[in-house]
Design goal:
8-stranded mixed sheet; 15 helices; alpha/beta; binds NADP nicotinamide-adenine-dinucleotide phosphate; globular; about 40% helix; about 350 residues; 4-stranded mixed sheet
């Protein structure tokens, strides 16, 4: 992990590719700290930014606002854009398209950090836009759009990205923006650790509940535990050690999740410090009928398991349930989901 103390002045302009929850939050924090930020996104979000500006809040009670006139919100990358840093913040299914657009519009060598979930987005972006310099990143916290232009960080944690000499000068700027960024020689273990935690996303989406309430239901926790156990087995077979992102080591998470709720509350402790209203973004996608990232989560686990001849029936079943969910939208109860996933 690399930490560097230097000027907090931004090394250059920033371009956010995919102005949604994460893009608006990260880009907004950087702009509030003095960076020149261009937000590239869809008409609905851009119209909100142009009309209302940005309001950024978090669970620690901080609030930052950016006036509408101060925001550069565009549908296409400006012809002469020369960003020193691009934050790629589209959902996984949109990565290849977004990368293609970046590759066509930006000079060779432009630095791009994928601030996306899943374990393959940076690779997909790099393969699609081979002229760019793409690094994997990881966002540990949850951001939700509470109202048009209002983005709220509901949980905590440090951003991570792969170490690179060109990213190091950005560290003080991120710090000044309230975004602690840690650089790592190899991000694979961190991405997979986040992916294991994100295996809760489809459970949360199907539950229809806020994260905190869903996590206090033991049946739902047993579903997450079973998804994670398969993920851990696939990782062990592949020789990938998931990093420790929570107070508990990744290998112990399924056991803790399976504890009776009063014990779970005790052991989970500050992990349960989640806004009462926070939901996974997959829950929002499902509710809005948008494609979900199920393939970048359970699909990634299934593919890794298959490469090592390991059956992954719970993750496979979860993919099936998520694919069917838009056809029969309804909240699932914990015991019902556990049985549907074949967990005794
Ligand atoms: N939200 C969270 O709490 C959270 C936390 C950690 C990590 N993440 C990860 O961060 C990534 C982004 O998630 P998010 O929740 O911020 O997604 P989001 O709110 O859906 O934002 C992405 C935005 O980018 C737009 N977009 C897609 N392709 C584009 C293109 N080619 N040009 C311009 N805009 C484009 C999307 O529009 P369309 O809807 O039309 O595609 C959407 O408005 C995901 O990988 C997610 O898993 C999210």
């Amino acid at each position: 992990m690399t930490r560097i103390a230097a000027s907090a002045a931004p090394p250059g302009p920033v371009l956010v590719m995919g102005a949604g929850a994460i893009g608006c939050y990260l880009g907004g924090c950087l702009q509030a700290a003095g960076a020149e930020v261009t937000f590239v996104g869809r008409p609905r979000v851009l119209a909100d930014l142009r009309a209302r500006g940005l309001r950024l809040t978090d669970l620690d009670g901080h609030e930052r606002t950016l006036a509408a006139e101060a925001i550069c919100a565009v549908e296409a990358i400006p012809p002469r854009a020369r960003p020193a840093l691009v934050l790629l913040t589209v959902k996984s299914a949109a990565t290849a398209d977004a990368a293609q657009t970046l590759g066509e519009a930006l000079p060779p060598g432009t630095l791009v950090v994928s601030m996306q979930n899943g374990a393959s987005n940076a690779q997909v972006a790099q393969q699609t836009a081979s002229s760019l310099h793409v690094l994997p990143g990881m966002v540990p916290f949850n951001v939700a759009e509470l109202s048009p232009g209002h983005f709220h960080r509901g949980t905590s944690g440090a951003l991570a990205a792969q170490d690179d000499p060109r990213l190091r000068p950005w560290l003080p700027c991120f710090e000044a923006a309230g975004l602690h960024l840690e650089l790592h020689a190899d991000l694979r273990g961190i991405q997979w650790a986040k992916l294991l935690i994100n295996l809760n996303n489809p459970v949360n989406a199907l539950s229809g509940l806020p994260l905190r309430r869903q996590l206090l239901d033991r049946d739902f926790r047993r579903c997450i535990a079973a998804l994670q156990r398969e993920g851990l087995a696939a990782l062990a077979a592949a020789g990938i050690a998931p990093a420790r992102l929570t107070p508990l080591p990744p290998a112990s998470l399924p056991t803790v999740l399976e504890l009776p709720t009063p014990l779970f509350r005790l052991v989970a402790g500050r992990t349960l410090r989640i806004d009462a209203k926070a939901r996974s973004s997959m829950a929002d996608d499902l509710a809005r009928g948008r494609p979900t990232e199920i393939d970048a989560l359970c699909g990634e686990v299934v593919r890794l398991g298959r490469r090592h001849d390991l059956p992954m029936p719970v993750n496979e079943k979860m993919i099936e349930l998520m694919q069917q969910a838009p056809l029969h939208p309804r909240p699932w109860r914990g015991a019902e989901l556990r049985r549907a996933l074949g967990i005794g």
